[in-house]
Amino acid sequence: MAAPDVIVVGGGVMGCALAYQLAHRGASVTLYERGQLGGESTAKCAGGVRQQFSTEVNVHIQRLAVSLLKEFDEEIGTPAGFRQIGYLFTFADPLSVAAFRDLLPMWHRAGLAEARWVDVDEIKELVPVLRTDDLLGGTFCPTDGLASPADVTSGYAAAARRAGAVLNEGVDVSSLALAGDRVVGVDTAGGRKEADLVVLCCGAWTPQIAATVGVEVPIEPLRRHVFVTGEFPQIPHTNPMTVDFTTSLYFHPEGEGVLVGMSDRDEPPTYSQDVNWDFVDRMVTTVAHRVPPLEAAGFKTVWAGLYESTPDHQAIMGPVAARPGLWIAAGFSGHGFMQAPAAGMLLAQAMLEGRSDIDLSAFALERFVAGNVTDERNVI
Prior knowledge:
By secondary structure, the chain is α/β, with parallel strands linked by helices. The chain folds into two domains: 5-48 and 149-219 and 312-370, FAD/NAD(P)-binding domain (3-Layer(bba) Sandwich); 87-142 and 220-307, D-Amino Acid Oxidase, Chain A, domain 2 (2-Layer Sandwich), CATH 3.30.9.10. It contains ten helices and 19 strands. The chain has helices at residues 13-24, 56-70, 72-76, 94-109, 120-126, 149-162, 206-210, 277-290, 336-353, 367-370, and strands spanning 5-9, 28-33, 48-49, 87-91, 116-118, 137-141, 145-146, 166-169, 173-179, 182-188, 191-194, 197-200, 220-229, 241-244, 249-254, 257-263, 299-309, 316-319, 326-330. The chain has an eight-stranded mixed sheet with strand order 5-6-4-14-15-16-13-17. Strands 8-2-1-12-19-18 form a six-stranded mixed sheet. Strand 9 and strand 10 (182-188) form a beta hairpin. Helix 1 runs parallel beside helix 6 (149-162) and helix 2 (56-70) packs across helix 9. The protein is globular and about 65 Å long. 52% of the residues are buried.
């Protein structure tokens, strides 16, 4: 059977990874991105790559993603900037301690044998600048780390083009096209473009396009803030990505400075990506408590971007039962960059071969109607 024609809507890291994996397997792929490739949420993410999740399927997906990032240079031909400096989660409340301790047996069963519990003394050894007097412990996985969103996205885009995919920038998809119940293409300013399959990889904007064919997608946009400090040698390049789980504050080395992020858990959904300076002040206050010397580093740059969040903080990956021909790869709830290498491969397998190395049924859109949901709790 001939490989299908596929339209991918959205040119972030997810769309580019999927375009590569599909084209690499012989599909005829056309991608449409309304702006620049990798220019929206991908460009604004922190670059973290971790395997410490609360659901076993996400651990398996992330172990696959890590293996693909380790092989990225050989397979794709360009570096991913992947540095396995580790992820350190720290806890200041007994409930988080109990929850993460309970996860260790599952992590080990899933093959993440290197993840371990660390006491306060080891936390201080791993991150000497951290205030630890109020901490109760943490988890550390040395094979977690950081990769470059720009390098991974551009690498997949270039490899997709070499495999024959056509990637279009500056083309806005206004709606999906139907023939009966089946999605048969997309509508753009340049007219209707038809295909056997259409995949929505539009992040927080996926619901608007899906709604044009009557499909409800429960994704909400949540604003997240990040800043990068000036030079700060007290946190070396080997310092692990560090997450203060109670407050959601996280930081990692970035150039000569430090990248700092945090979630405003009280802010309602919004598409605004303007910087909320009042919240940035709250971030600085939290930094002053957890990493006191870092408060004096100053700002180099500040930005805000969007999480594409679902009710259970799990991705939506797979076909839409009510609309044959339509697939979705969105709603990654802050984990899209780190899951993209694996998600692109698994979705391409499912679309072209009818199966995937990891079962994606837990990520079906229909789970929300059926009530078959399992919350991913390790969300920052």
